[in-house]
Amino acid sequence: RGTSFSIRRYCQKTPATLRVSEAVSGAKLGANVKVQGWVRSVRPQKANLFLHVNDGSSLQSLQVVASSELLTLGSAVEVTGTLRKSPRQRQPFELEADRIHVVGDCDPVDFPFKIKERHSLEYIRQFPHLRCRTNAFSSLLRIRSEATTAVHSYFKENGFVQIHTPVITSNDCEGAGELFQVEVKGEKFFSVPAFLTVSGQLHLEVMSGAFSRVYTFGPTFRAENSQSRRHLAEFYMVEAEVSFTQSLEDLTKVMEDMFRSATEHVLAHCAEDVDLFHKHVTPGHRVSPQGHFAIDILNQSSQKFAFPTDWGCDLQTEHEKHLVKHCGNIPVFVTDYPYDLKPFYARDNLDHPEHTAAAVDLLVPGVGELCGGSLREERLDLLKARLGEAGLEDTYSWYLDLRRFGSVPHGGFGMGFERFLQCILGVDNIKDVIAFPRFSHSCPL
Ligand code: 4AD
Fold it and tell me: Do 362 and 332 touch, CB atoms closer than 8 A?
């Protein structure tokens, strides 16, 4: 009894700790509460000091009214006081502070962000260890977290099983040679050369021999010597594999549904944060499957391209942009690429007079290629011949086994998660949609 009495007294005395997102919506109005966070702005006015405190839980910071104390931008604080209505409509609640405990102070001279200054994404990118303290980048990280949930929700709701494909692998799925090799003190660690994965596709294909719908969502690595605004050396890829496919349409449907569902989820759950990026998109437009030949559209254009547009040439960023524009700035599927441009796993469209593969890319405004996918060659003789031509039959004997033991028509695709965020937020540079960007010559922390 004695104990329960003292607990009640203790509870009465101890203020409830609120997240900033709760406090700004008026939870526990009139009560004595505690809020912990970092100072995002400081404004002295007459005898008072107005602070904005944020803990990453919402775009809105909590206004704290204190009698003058020395506090600097960026300090970590614990504020205790009474939550009350504020005279301002834009922030209806504020915290009248009784006590401010500075948990960690911040040197205002060396701190790279200044009060009342607008910092561009380019500027804050120079401080990868501090940029999460800005409004723009904390919004981005909340959106990214919610978009991750959106992707998982889509696959869960549609009966896909998530597979944790390995980060270390012995295959070069795409065959483009953009591999980071894994070694210990310059020596092989495994019995075979090993690399950071460029794609989880081949491991997903293993699983698609037992599960008709699988997906993976994790980091992938490309030793691409590129500083472009849409390439990273480490990026996150969403990959799906579907068994018993009838045609490429079975894949484009999943690509479109996932894109639409994830976009709508983000817009519904992060409206305030998305607004900060001042961009609105109309998700999920679809071009008719009886579309035009991409190559004809490019050849008939009056635009002068730096790269040639003959049949058999791969699409460059400038071509992708032109195609998206030509179709009215909406997402566009380009299908049936020249066979020789596609990796060994792509299915041969034997019935096409031009030699093509059943491959598809989804191009989107502002970004270009967002997804790449294909039907996979499930016919043992054709796959064996193609691997044989490349001298890879022994390396991929296990992959050929998948065609020997219960092979089914199947296909899949990969979506670059950062490019998805660029597309829905209108962010120009891929380095601004990932917490710690890695690209050639840059791995600062
Ligand atoms: O077109 P990619 O290379 O396709 C594959 O890797 C397939 N194995 C996927 C599959 O079918 N399971 O890459 C897929 C997507 C691209 O469309 C692009 O959005 C993104 O991954 N991507 C990159 N994103 C950022 N930086 C890079 N260096 C990227 N390379 C590809």
Answer: yes
- Cβ of residue 371 lying under 6 Å from some atom of ligand 1: yes
- Calpha distance 250→411 (Å, rounded): 9
Position 120, amino acid: S
For domain 2-117, the CATH architecture is Beta Barrel (2.40)
Contacts (Cβ under 8 Å, ≥6 apart) of 148: 217, 417
Q: Which residue is closest in CA terms to ligand 1's atom 31?
A: 416
- CATH tag for 131-432 (out of 3.40.50.1480, 3.30.450.20, 2.40.320.10, 3.30.930.10): 3.30.930.10
The H or E element containing residue 385 is helix 380-389
- Per the prediction, the chain carries an average pLDDT of 91
The answer, yes or no, to whether residue 281 has pLDDT greater than 80, is: no
What pLDDT, on a 0 to 100 scale, did the predictor assign at position 89? 79
Q: What integer pLDDT is reported at residue 292 of this predicted model?
A: 63
Predicted TM-score (pTM) of this structure: 0.92
User: What is the pLDDT averaged over residues 193-215?
Assistant: 98
Task: Return the bridge partners of 221, or none.
Answer: 234
Say yes or no: ipTM exceeds 0.95.
yes
What's the mean pLDDT in 280-285?
38
Token output for 437: 């960007």
**Ligand 1 contacts CB of residue 131 (under 6 A):** no
41 vs 52: CA distance, rounded Å = 5
- Between the CA of 11 and the centroid of ligand 1 the distance, in Å, is 54
Contacts of 398 (CB under 8 A, 6+ apart): none
Percent of the chain with pLDDT over 90: 75
Please report the atom of ligand 1 found closest to the CA of residue 204. 12
Please tell me whether residue 155 adopts helix, strand or coil conformation.
Answer: helix
Provide the residue ranges of all domains of the chain, joining segments of one domain with +.
Answer: 2-117, 131-432
For tokens 């401080």, the residue is 127
Using alpha carbons only, give the angle 192, 198, 352 rounded to the nearest 5 degrees.
Answer: 110
Q: Cα angle vertex 266, ends 143, 17, to 5°? A: 55
Give the pLDDT confidence of 213-252 residue by residue, as tens digits. 999 999 999 999 888 999 999 999 999 999 999 999 999 9
| Ligand 1 pocket residue status of 197, Cβ below 6 Å | no
346 pocket-lining for ligand 1 (C-beta < 6 Å): no
What is the C-alpha to C-alpha distance for residues 17 and 356, in angstroms, rounded to an integer? 62
- The reply to whether 2-117 and 131-432 are identical in fold is no
